[in-house]
Amino acid sequence: MYYDWKPYVSIAQRRRNAMREMEKLRKKGHHASPVVIEGRTIASTFWGKSWCTNLERYSDYANRLPRGRSYVRNGSVVDLDVRAGEVTALVSGSELYTVRVTVSRVPKARWSAICGDCAGAIDSLVELLQGRFSKGVMDRICQEEKGLFPSPKEIEFDCSCPDWASMCKHVAATLYGIGARLDQKPELLFVLRKVDEKAIIAQAGKGMPLTKKAPASDKLLDDGALSELFGIEIDGAAASEIQTRAPAAKRTKPSDGRRSRTRKGARSRSKARQR
Asked: Per residue in 230-250, pLDDT tens?
């Protein structure tokens, strides 16, 4: 069986062709979101690098990924959109190809296990999204087949190119493009796997005190201060209590003219006593 392979198109020509096609789409109201790689490093954050590492550790993908790395580095992924359970992309080749990657939802039992195992080890959503947690948590989230990242059986590909392989270079470029996008928006991984990242934080707070140590009494704001600070009104009972507890008002300093008259009067009284 013979395949009618299209002639080689240089990178520069591919970019020109892609820009021409993207301009047509822009005029129709489509706003592109290209994957831009600076240098040769595709991903530099925990989530981006972990996604790419997950792809490369499965033998199913090993011999199909190198061309994808080249494509994403040279700017061939001219549009990439990550949504719940699906990624769509436009990749520039000998022409502009449409790629669709479908990723299944994380099984409920697996997600519950991840949240439970990480409970108490992640303090905040910011810490989670920035990947600033212990190696134990990292290992658990990235655990093969049991972590958050998908296995080959949880991903399906489709590309409009004539390549017979299920993962062509355009699909591979899209998968690496996802890793690069997670560098910028790590929350998209949770969107893609159809889970709520806040669940890990909520699980972490169960059974734990709201604060580890009560603040010192002199660092507490009274209700009057809170009312003044936030511009809110407090009910009558609370207001009476605030007035009862309120410290005496500080004596204000008189104006310069008043201080001058007071000092002059004091000197007059002193001279009278001396006489």
From this structure: 454 545 444 444 444 445 444
Q: Are residues 138 and 69 in the same domain?
A: yes
Same structural domain for residues 70 and 194? yes
Name residue, tokens 């660092």.
Answer: 219
Mean of pLDDT over the chain = 78
How many alpha carbons lie under 13 Å from residue 247 in its C-beta half-sphere? 4
116 and 203 Cβ atoms separated by less than 8 Å: yes
> Cα(79)–Cα(66) distance, rounded to whole angstroms?
20
Cα–Cα distance, 137 to 114 (Å, whole number): 9
Burial 19-29 (b: 16+ CB within 10 A, else e): eebbeeeeeee
Same domain for 141 and 228:
no
CA–chain centroid gap for 136, Å, is: 21
Tell me if 212 is assigned to some domain.
Answer: no
- Of 201 and 82, the structure prediction assigns the larger pLDDT to 82
Same domain, 196 and 222: no
Count Cβ atoms below 10 Å from residue 202 Cβ, excluding itself: 11
Poorest-pLDDT segment among 5-9, 38-42, 123-127, 167-171: 5-9
What residues form DSSP beta bridges with 157? Answer: 101
Provide the 10 A C-beta neighbour count for residue 182.
Answer: 23
Contact residues for 24 (Cβ-Cβ < 8 A; gap 6+) = none
Beta strands, E only, the chain: 77-83, 86-92, 96-103, 155-159
Domain boundaries, position 30:
11-205
- Global pTM reads 0.69
